[in-house]
Amino acid sequence: MPAHAMVFRATLMSVKGVRATVEVRDDQTLVDLHDGIQEAFGWLDDHLYSFWLDNRFWGNDEMEYTSPVDADEGGQSAEVGLAELGLEPGAEIAYVFDFGDEWRVRLEFKRAAPADEGEYPRVTDRVGEAPTQ
Question: Is 133 part of any domain?
Fold first, then answer.
């Protein structure tokens, strides 16, 4: 079965008007989505991060998927495949990068579309300018 591109709107919560659209193939992982977010906001990928599928920042531990390094301490690894998550359009995910500075991003899964031969993850749109990390 051919892969689909999953289209996410990523909204930086601490800075009004900053958002991006990130596309990731459904045969990729949350780590790949993290990489797309890093590219979208110009971050350096030098801190830990977590996703919460219950859309609550620092929410339910059972719904948390964390950076593979941090997952060694008992959490669920973000190396999980996106297709395995069963996301439906409209689903929202809370993402935190850098547990000290706590950059919060709200992710909304907009839609799935046929993937092309291009490279994924990729940023297809940016609005506003993210502050430097």
Answer: no
| pLDDT mean values, one per 10 residues, the chain (133 residues) | 89 95 97 97 91 93 85 76 95 95 96 94 96 83
Number of domains in the chain: 1
CB burial of 46-78 (b: ≥16 within 10 Å; e: otherwise) equals: ebebbbbbebeeeeeeeebbbbbebbeeeebbb
Does residue 132 form part of some domain? no
pTM: 0.93
Q: Is 90 helix (H, G, I), strand (E, B) or coil?
A: coil
Q: How buried is 8 (Cβ within 10 angstroms: 0-12 exposed, 13-18 middle, 19+ buried)?
A: buried
> Is residue 51 in a domain?
yes
Q: CATH code at 86?
A: 3.10.290.30
